[in-house]
Amino acid sequence: MDAGGPPFRRRSIALTVACAIAFAGALQAVAFAFSPLYRELGASAGAGWLPAFIFASSLLAIAFLVILWWRMRRAPLLGYLGVIAAQNAVMAWLGRWSALMLLFPALVTAAAAWTWKDLR
User: Fold this and answer.
1) Is 48 helix (H, G, I), strand (E, B) or coil?
2) Is residue 3 included in any domain, yes or no?
3) Who has the most CB within 10 Å: 13, 83, 97, 117?
4) What is the number of domains present in the chain?
C-alpha cells in the first residue's frame, strides 16, 4: 500500500548538526533567561520585561529549529531568523549587541542554503 505522501528525503547531516548546535545555544538562553545578569540588564535599562522576552523568544527559536529539522520546510527557517532578528534588535537597543550573536543563525542559514533544494 502506498501512503500517497511525498517520497522520503534524507535529512542533511549539515542541517542536523547546525540545528543541534543552535538548539543547544537556545536551550542555554532559556536556562539563563531569569539569571541575575538579565534581570540587572533589564532593570538598568528600564526593561523589566527582558528576562521574559529572552525566555519566550528562545522557546520560540527552539520550536522553529525542531520544525526546521523535522519537517525540512523553508517557513521555519524564516521564523527562526525572524526571532533571532528580534533578539538582536532588543540587544542592540540595550547596547549589548555582539557579532557573536550571529554565529548560530549564520550556521543554520549556511546549512539551510546548502540543502535549499531539499527544503519544501
Assistant:
1) coil
2) no
3) 83
4) 1
